[in-house]
């Protein structure tokens, strides 16, 4: 474990300078020292009484805190806890993670989504071993040099592990600050101002507790849809509340509808009842995970026709497309998919990884050893149900 830093000390930040903006109007919202000190005191008092007891808060080990911070990106606490506990049992140290193979890492992450996080964690652990002797670097520049660590994650780790005064600005914090000052802009268009405010508010004596407290405030009181202002420690200073306009903040911009892709998928079996799976290329969405082969249905193409064509292009084999096994709807951040999954028989040809990193014939008993994306796990369940019903 790296050395602990008992007292907070000044930290250089990438852009500490306050960027005023007439667009956002934030420059005309002075936050006095007196108000800052009241906000800190109110938040820390509330946190001492109402803060959540979370597994990673009982640790000062930068590695454990780092794992939690990466898992918590875009993912709720209750989802993260079992993954976090399982991960630390399997890979208890940065050295264990660095020397693990990628399939083990992806299997532990299976179901959490945003798999680039796991691949980056793995590579960053190797960086920590190679460049920092296995100790997480206790500086903002060092943390930011690690793969997959941005400014808010760096701030979360450095403050929680070393009590360093590094500010954070995750989705929860953006929302709380936007309401606190009634930010007259969409938060993502006022990031320099929000970073400056987060730094200004951060308690230099207790950055660890302050950052945890503001995250808790956003997660449990100042929530997106149902803020509970009546029990909020910042109620008296909150501009949105005092203007009776909480639901107007944070401001949002209209989102275009998500594109929807129709995909044909093949569950190909051979004479021995084995199933063909392939491993996606490292780059891009779901890189390194296994899946059932298939691809996008072209305009004016039938789904069976698509499955047959895709398998020939991806694997160089001929198949017979049989009955529909299951249809799965799944949403990613930037698009939605419908997976039209068909039972298929292998007819001829040796499967080759023409558009993937690897192909494999596996039995139903072996298939659980491989990491699959969530939607593909539903396909495995459907294959099992079908096998059980004969
Ligand atoms: S008073 Fe309401 S809107 Fe303001 S910070 Fe507290 S919970 Fe959020």
UniProtKB/TrEMBL annotation:
Enzyme class label = hydrolase
Return one GO MF term: 4 iron, 4 sulfur cluster binding
Chain segments annotated as transmembrane: none
Q: Which family does it belong to?
A: Belongs to the Nth/MutY family.
Q: Which cofactor does it need?
A: Mg(2+); [4Fe-4S] cluster
Which amino acid positions bind Mg(2+), per UniProt? 294, 314
Entry keywords, A to Z: 4Fe-4S, DNA damage, DNA repair, Glycosidase, Hydrolase, Iron, Iron-sulfur, Magnesium, Metal-binding
Q: Which organism is it from?
A: Phormidesmis priestleyi
User: What's a single GO BP term from this record?
Assistant: mismatch repair
Specify the protein name: Adenine DNA glycosylase
NCBIfam families named among the record's database cross-references: mutt, mutY
Q: Which residues bind 8-oxo-dGTP?
A: 280, 291-294, 376
| Residues annotated as signal peptide | none
Query: Hydrolase among the record's keywords?
Result: yes
- Segments for region (Disordered): 1-26
Where does this protein have compositionally biased stretches of type Polar residues?
12-26
Q: Which reaction does it catalyse?
A: Hydrolyzes free adenine bases from 7,8-dihydro-8-oxoguanine:adenine mismatched double-stranded DNA, leaving an apurinic site
Highest taxon of source: Bacteria
Q: What is its EC number?
A: 3.2.2.31
- Entry function: Adenine glycosylase active on G-A mispairs. MutY also corrects error-prone DNA synthesis past GO lesions which are due to the oxidatively damaged form of guanine: 7,8-dihydro-8-oxoguanine (8-oxo-dGTP).
Matching InterPro entries, A to Z?
A: A/G_AdeGlyc_MutY, DNA_glycosylase, HhH-GPD_domain, HhH_base_excis_C, MIG/MutY, Mutator_MutT, MutY_C, Nudix_hydrolase
Domain (Nudix hydrolase): residue spans on this chain: 258-385
């Amino acid at each position: 474990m790296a050395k602990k830093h008992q007292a907070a000390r000044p930290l250089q930040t990438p852009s500490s300078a306050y960027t005023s903006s007439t667009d956002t109007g934030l420059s005309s919202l002075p936050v006095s020292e007196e108000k800052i000190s009241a906000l800190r005191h109110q938040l820390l008092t509330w946190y001492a009484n109402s803060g959540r007891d979370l597994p990673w808060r009982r640790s000062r080990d930068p590695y454990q805190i780092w794992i939690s911070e990466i898992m918590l990106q875009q993912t709720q606490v209750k989802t993260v806890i079992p993954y976090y506990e399982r991960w630390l049992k399997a890979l208890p140290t940065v050295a264990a993670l660095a020397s693990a193979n990628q399939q083990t890492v992806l299997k532990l992450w299976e179901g959490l989504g945003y798999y680039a996080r796991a691949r980056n964690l793995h590579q960053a652990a190797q960086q920590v071993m190679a460049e920092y002797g296995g100790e997480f670097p206790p500086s903002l520049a060092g943390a930011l040099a690690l793969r997959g660590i941005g400014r808010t994650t760096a701030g979360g780790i450095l403050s929680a592990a070393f009590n360093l005064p590094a500010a954070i600005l995750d989705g929860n914090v953006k929302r709380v600050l936007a309401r606190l000052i009634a930010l007259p802009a969409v938060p993502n268009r006022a990031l320099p101002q929000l970073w400056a405010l987060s730094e200004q508010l951060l308690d230099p004596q207790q950055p660890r507790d302050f950052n945890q407290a503001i995250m808790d405030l956003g997660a449990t009181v100042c929530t997106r849809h149902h803020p509970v202002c009546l029990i909020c420690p910042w109620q008296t200073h909150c501009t949105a509340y005092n203007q009776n306009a909480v639901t107007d903040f944070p401001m949002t911009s209209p989102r275009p509808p998500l594109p929807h892709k129709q995909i044909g998928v093949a569950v190909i079996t051979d004479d021995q009842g084995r199933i063909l799976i392939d491993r996606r290329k490292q780059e891009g969405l779901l890189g390194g995970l296994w899946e059932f082969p298939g691809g996008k249905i072209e305009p004016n193409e039938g789904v069976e026709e698509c499955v047959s064509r895709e398998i020939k292009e991806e694997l160089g084999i001929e198949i017979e497309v049989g009955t529909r096994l299951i249809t799965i709807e799944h949403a990613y951040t930037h698009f939605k998919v419908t997976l039209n999954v068909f039972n298929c028989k292998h007819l001829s040809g040796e499967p080759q990884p023409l558009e993937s990193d690897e192909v494999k014939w596996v039995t139903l008993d072996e298939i659980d050893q491989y990491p699959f994306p969530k939607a593909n796990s539903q396909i495995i369940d459907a294959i099992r149900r079908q096998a059980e019903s004969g």
